[in-house]
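Page 47, continued from p. 46.
Same chain as before, 292 aa.
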Amino acid sequence: MEPLGEHATAKADVVVVIAHPDDEIFVSGTICLCTESGLTVTLVCVTDGQAGARCLLYDRSCLQLKDVRRRELLLSAWVLGIREVIFLEQEDSADVDWRQLDAIDRDAVIGRLERVMRQSTPRLILTHGPLGGYGHSAHRSVHACVMAAARNSDFAGSIFSFCGKSQGAFFSWHFDQPSTICVDARNFDRRRAASLNYHQTQSEYFLSPYFPRTFRKTASALCGYAMAWTEWGRKRVPIGTAERFFMKYPVEGLVLQQPPAGGRPHFFLEQFPGDKRIQGTGGAIAPRSKTT
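Result:
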């Protein structure tokens, strides 16, 4: 797999547009579902990720954070089965500003995305929601750019956002909108965990903040370890590894932002009718086994 330049011409069934290197984590199970089914996936990353966590970078390293994160994303994409990655290299915003400001040149991004859509002719676009999933301004900007580019290029396929709310799902209370469909991603947990593990510079955002920091949470965690052979117990064991992160995040919620033209059923209804891993297409996600 090689990153593509500005004039990418490769065809793709699915185009995933993310703001930062590592945002594909939130839709990695759906990506695996598509690639397992023989669909080709192109990933477009809008920012360079330079404003992310720097704690693992050696102070005197000649590499910039954006160079490291680029390599991390390529490795993540490789394990998910993504065929090509396109980097738009927009400036990333500092963490302190993420709720208010971003440095994305929307006109430039819209123009690049128009070309990607016309040249790759996908049936499905996956991207951030209108409120950024959990409010991130760069995520919101990327959503607006995708929708504008779709209008300008007369894109006739389905557009879904990820990080949709789904009942009982970990993190779901952070998210914007109720899900149109929910994808059971448990069959792909090893690949999802490997993908997350490649983002070593940013792992603290996914793993570290969720260790218990109060007496109540510590007691809950101890009960979880004592009862780890039950689903009740496993839900209370704190996140510390990529594998445990996805144990608490088994379902990915997707929200339909634009239906296909001509009154056709959306992508998942056409591609995966009745698939038991997808709730909302005639399938019904099975209860989680006590042995998982």
